[in-house]
Amino acid sequence: MIEGGCNCGAVRYRAEGDPIVVAQCHCTNCRRQSGSAFSVNLLFKGAAVSHDGELSVYEDKDTFSGNAVLRKFCGRCGSPIFSEPTDGKGLLIVKAGTLDDPAPFVPTVSVWTSTALPWVVLPEGQYAFEKNA
CA-CA distance, 34 to 16, in Å (whole number)? Predict the structure, then answer.
């Protein structure tokens, strides 16, 4: 069981099983949402994740894929919790910084490296994709 939550504790979540992949995303939208040089994300089947507490949603329509992404966050403290692509694949992205223990989840792939900041050094041996994998 993987658990996490927002900064103020109003939202808590649980994920069953291991993530499909742990990825660094360097797209502009993930940078803006994370407030950092990239976002570290755990990808799950949506059915594997449940949560307690109210989430606010921003429908991000300005994506490279053309499909909207639902950016879900705590309306009280603003912590980004999930991103949910609306492409019909039923996937849910959990923001690694919200995990109770993020240490075990080392990114194995970087996506959208074509928009990575020039001073970001990708880990040696990590798979890297100029766009989505």
Answer: 24
